[in-house]
């Protein structure tokens, strides 16, 4: 079985060693980059399945690295930050990170988060013998055989958590959900910052809506939550 490849971007050698040790013990293949420039170079050379990215880095900070990675790949990214402020976490998610942990953190928790992301983003084999089936809202189409999403015929790319949320909406067209319901039903989070849902909705709209400022597919139901589907 192929081992998952994880790129750890951390400038503290001791912290990097601890994280790498736990990931290796969990069966993952690990490469370490000590700054932002090395992270971008290492990403190209190592082709990781997951990136664990410290936000405060020398030469090129983690915010810039995250933005650069997201321009070229939908690889899952866990952002590690020592700041811990809500605005900082939200900013990281807006840049395209899939998850975040704040220092100090449990290495075991980090491994569990990494494993969860890798499970969700593992590729599913296509089944060409089945007739293609689709779900469609306006010009947004989900092919149920290949799981490819297209808009006006053009393939779209999503991060793991974006895709989790979009798949859930495709499975529940026309239904309205509160933020806390989405957190629990999509990711089984019983507690957490519900403002994260707003970030993922905003990121989805930037990809699936013709005009994200005036959505016609993913609607805000004021005072309630969100509804996916054609306008009613």
TrEMBL record:
4-aspartylphosphate, modified sites: 54
A biological process from GO: regulation of DNA-templated transcription
Residue stretches making up the OmpR/PhoB-type domain: 132-230
Coiled-coil parts of chain: none
CDD domains per record: REC_OmpR, trans_reg_C
GO molecular function, a single term: phosphorelay response regulator activity
GO annotations of cellular component type: cytosol; protein-DNA complex
InterPro entries documented for this protein: CheY-like_superfamily, OmpR/PhoB-type_DNA-bd, Sig_transdc_resp-reg_C-effctor, Sig_transdc_resp-reg_receiver, WalR-like, WH-like_DNA-bd_sf
UniProt keyword DNA damage, yes or no: no
Regions recorded as binding DNA: 132-230
Listed SMART domains: REC, Trans_reg_C
Keywords from the named record: DNA-binding, Phosphoprotein, Transcription, Transcription regulation, Two-component regulatory system
Response regulatory domain segment(s): 5-118
Domain of life: Bacteria
Keyword Glycosyltransferase: no
UniProt protein name: Response regulator transcription factor
């Amino acid at each position: 079985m192929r081992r998952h490849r994880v790129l750890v971007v951390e400038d503290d050698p001791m912290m990097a060693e601890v994280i790498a040790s736990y990931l290796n013990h969990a069966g993952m293949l690990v490469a370490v980059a000590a700054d932002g420039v090395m992270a971008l170079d290492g990403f190209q050379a190592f082709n990781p399945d997951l990136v664990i990215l410290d936000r405060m880095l020398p030469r090129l900070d983690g915010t810039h690295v995250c933005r650069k990675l997201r321009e070229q790949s939908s690889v899952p990214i866990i952002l590690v930050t020592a700041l811990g402020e809500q605005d900082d976490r939200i900013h990281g998610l807006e840049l395209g990170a899939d998850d975040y942990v704040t220092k100090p953190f449990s290495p075991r928790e980090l491994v569990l988060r990494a494993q969860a992301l890798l499970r969700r983003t593992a590729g599913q084999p296509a089944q060409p013998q089945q007739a293609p089936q689709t779900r469609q809202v306006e010009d947004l189409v989900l092919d149920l055989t290949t799981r490819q999403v297209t808009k006006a015929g053009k393939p779209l790319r999503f991060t793991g958590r974006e895709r989790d949320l979009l798949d859930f909406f495709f499975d529940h067209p026309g239904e309205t959900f509160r933020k806390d319901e989405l957190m629990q039903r999509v990711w089984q989070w019983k507690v957490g910052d519900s403002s994260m849902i707003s970030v993922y909705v905003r990121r989805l709209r930037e990809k699936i809506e013709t005009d994200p400022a005036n959505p016609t597919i993913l609607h805000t139901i004021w005072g309630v939550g969100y509804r996916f589907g054609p306008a009613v």
